[in-house]
From TrEMBL, chain A:
The keyword Isomerase appears for this protein: no
Ranges of residues in domain NADH:quinone oxidoreductase/Mrp antiporter transmembrane: 126-402
Subcellular location: Cell membrane; Membrane
Protein name: Multisubunit potassium/proton antiporter, PhaA subunit (TC 2.A.63.1.1)/multisubunit potassium/proton antiporter, PhaB subunit (TC 2.A.63.1.1)
Organism: Mesorhizobium tianshanense
GO biological process: monoatomic ion transport
Residue ranges of the TM segments: 27-44, 80-100, 109-126, 132-150, 162-185, 205-230, 242-264, 270-291, 298-316, 322-346, 358-388, 408-430, 451-477, 497-522, 567-586, 598-618, 625-644, 650-668, 688-706, 747-765, 786-808, 820-841, 853-871, 891-916
Alphabetical keyword list: Antiport, Cell membrane, Ion transport, Membrane, Transmembrane, Transmembrane helix, Transport
NADH-Ubiquinone oxidoreductase (complex I) chain 5 N-terminal domain segment(s): 66-110
Keyword presence, Transport: yes
From TrEMBL, chain B:
Membrane association type: Multi-pass membrane protein
Subcellular location: Cell membrane
Name listed for the protein in its UniProt record: Multisubunit potassium/proton antiporter, PhaC subunit (TC 2.A.63.1.1)
NCBIfam families hit by this protein: PRK08600.1, PRK09094.1
Keywords (A to Z) from UniProt: Cell membrane, Membrane, Transmembrane, Transmembrane helix
Amino acid sequence: MTLWLIALIPFFGAVLPSLLERSGRNACAAATGVVTLAALVLLLSRAPAVYRGEVLRTQVEWLPQIGLSFSFFLDGLGLFFAALILGIGLLIIIYARFYLGRNDPIGRFYAYLLLFQGAMVGIVLSDNILGLLVFWELTSLTSFLLIGYWRHLPEARQGARMALIITAGGGLSLIAGMLLLGHIAGSYQLTEILARGAQIKASPLYVPALLLILGGAFTKSAQFPFHFWLPHAMAAPTPVSAYLHSATMVKAGVFLLARLWPALAGTDTWFMIVAPVGMVTMLIAAWIAIFKDDLKQVLAFSTVSHLGMMTMLLGLGTPMAAVAAVFHILNHATFKAALFMSAGVVDHEAGTRDIRRLGGLLTLMPITATLSLIAAASMAGIPLLNGFLSKEMMLEQVAQTSYLGTPWLFPALAGLATLLSVAYSARLGIRTFLGPRRHDYPARPHDPSAGMWLPIAVLVLPVLAIGLMPATFAGAIVERTALAVVGGPLPEYHLALWHGITPALLISLVALAGGAATFFIYHRLNAIRLVLLRPDAKTMFEAAIGAVALTARRWIDATHTGSLQRYVGVIVGVIVVLGAVGFWSVNHGEGTRPTLPMTVPAVIAWIALIGASIAVALQHHDRILVLILTSVVGLVVSLGFMQFSAPDLALTQISVEVVTTILLLLALNLLPRTSARETRPLARWRDAGVASVAGIGIAGLAYAVMTRGFDSISAYHLAESKPGGGGTNVVNVILVDFRGFDTFGEIIVLGIAAITIFALLDKSLKGAAARRLAALRMVEEAKDAHPMILVVATRVLLPLALTVGAYIFMRGHNQPGGGFIAGLIVAIALITQYMASGYVWAAERRPFDAHALIGGGIAIAGLTGIASWVFERPFLTSAYDYLHLPVMGEFGIASAVAFDLGVFLTVVGVTILSLAQISRIAQRAERSPDTDSPMDIHFAIEPNGTVAIADPVRQEK
Amino acid sequence: MEVLVASATGVLVAVGVYLLLRGQTFPVIVGLTFLSYAANVFLFAIGRLAINRPPIISPDAAGYTDPLPQALVLTAIVISFGMTALIMVLALRGFLETGSDRVDLDTLDDAQAPREKPDPVRVGSPA
């Protein structure tokens, strides 16, 4: 449970700074700090158990079907990284409070920071690799937000985009790799995967899985050739650079390599790929770092170089190299975060980060300068500081490594990289802080407030402490963490300052001297660099992205012409071809199921349907005629349902038919009443050809199906309908009980459609549509907009229709009927009022709101489903009993009836809302004077006592 | 009887597809209606044809036809009404906004050509 909290506290806490934004910067920072501190304290409370050698686990199932669970575990490695993330996070929060300017929205910054923190902690504590992937993607997203925090700066946006594309692209590769890994290991739990290293390494899928996982790790940790995004991410505010791009996120890749070390490392493939990639990264980035003038750029490339070193160490695949890697992760986090923060301080106080414009700051800002110089010296690997110790361990390991049969290759390259790192560290420290004081700083440099230098001091402290007494201050941490990385016993080693004269020490000394020399011949080196090829990653990246976008654009232009006819033609054509291929690739026999004999009425109905259909195709430009012919087709279809034992379908079809016809009529009121004739006969014949082939295909398929026997699962429904569902109408019982969840979904879809219709038309009362509506003139109008016979007939029929609706609804569970049909009948009765008496008249008298009907219907259906939870049954389990009503007879009252009521209300609401809305729009177009005063019959009592019927229209005139 | 139902389904599909390939909204919508008929009938026919075998449990019944396709088709009929209504309204709104009831986007050439002024639209004039 505690593990859960540790990972989730930052996520929940992220709400706080956004809420407290108005309460001031201190409140924001304090809230963020407290959240982080809470998570850190919880984490540290578990530390003793971990240091006793326990592995803490917690698991909650999420999607067990695909092996996804919320599961966390805490071992030495997880504890180490989580403490690093939360501890440095705390310092960064304090630092950022003083770093960010008055105009920077600080609430947003802290909210992003906490989200990132939560995602990072999630990665390092995840036990389930699918869960890990979720957190992994979250770090990519949150880092995108943080890099782009200063939205107004184009570099920030470009840098954020580049970082997102590279790291999220790597994330995709990682997803594939992790899925493969889970497949090989047979489990998605890290704790189990780590125990099955031998099985994984022996699998034929090992190499693909490894390559894909490395794709994720290398992009995240900015390894060559994906290193270029990190320097561009430096457009972020300095606290972000210090936190994400030195101490935590970029180490996620290294963490992953360390985490999966027992499962993946130790093979030749691993060594041949990971070690040289790390080595090349380390070397190239160190070389570039020498020539950068921006402090943050120097630090960025130096970070890439150090990440390369850690990757290389893990790539060596020996337990001792893993110990060195862990030790260096710890040391690098301390001195590099300190350096980033002090670069921010220099920028803040001196007004520039450009090395060429700085120098002599030691006397002006002594505290910052001292702290920075110590950290820089540690980065250079000068003795008595922690950077020296881990560098020595690295050189020691490299000195024993032979790559491609060449024993000197790795030591030489590593020595060269060390030399370069001495050079850039020296340049950074000396050119910024030493030398003569200048007179042209853009601002007046001075030491910042304690809030900004204290976090740096807290990080420099371990630089000194570990540097002087490594065994005391780092021994236990390194040992416990390395044990977790290696997953087995560690070799004999001890952290100490003095190991005697070793090859590593010799390389180190040469590197120190060489680095110092490099610093003095800087200008000559720079001249050499200018001659060399200097590919600019950003230009190449932008060109690649541009090319991809252009290709996509061309494809879209070529395929998406905006012609619906073309799309439909292609779709139908492909379906026809696929169907034909399927048909002709297998042998088919004649169907053996006995067919029903033809009857005369059936043939007559068939002729009516075929005739009407063909007439529609031929006369489709005359829209009113099409409407009439279409309803003939609908009528025949419902007769067909009637004939073939589907009374419910017949009832539904005939009611829908009425509603659809009304709908189309209402729409035709506003649309042109004729379609343009097809001008190209060739196109007409081509379309007819495509359509005929599709029709013949479907007809053949339907015939083939109907003449063959089949097994149905419906025996269960037929048998259980009465005893299980309490109804004899099996179709209705299926709808409201067996497949009630489907029905529930469908009424929601209906509701959404109706509300969309409402929104679409509601907006058309404004803007261009409204002007066009107002301009509509009814050229051909009935003399009497509301004929009396129609008005009277619909009003008399209304109560009758409502009664029929109620009856159809009540009997639906046992006889043909039910919520859908009853809903349609009631809706028709109401809609005809709109038709006969006009929108205004009907709307004024409508006692309910159609939106409320839809919402209420869905709510009733949903609540009926939930009610079964009270009885500890699954959603929508129904119960029933019998009820005797006078006159109407015996009714089975099942809880499903309540569900059906929900269906009924939704259908009424949907139909009314859709049709009334169209009729409301049409109202805007109607101009005849008597449309707005629908005919009502007023009874006036004459003085002599007789009752006269007054015509309201005439009266008003 | 099966031949009649199968051929009718085929004709409904053919007319539906043909209308879908027209260039204006109303025929396209009617085409969708035809395809809905066809799809519903086809789905219904999957349960095979039977006469006088309604799936209403009763002691006198000689047998029952398959109720499951009927339940599927019942909701499909109602949903296809919802779909028709939505598309109809989309077409209507499009027509009101642009004054054109063509289903295609203007091609590049059309977009560059000066647009004809659709206002005021004369609706309902006899063809």
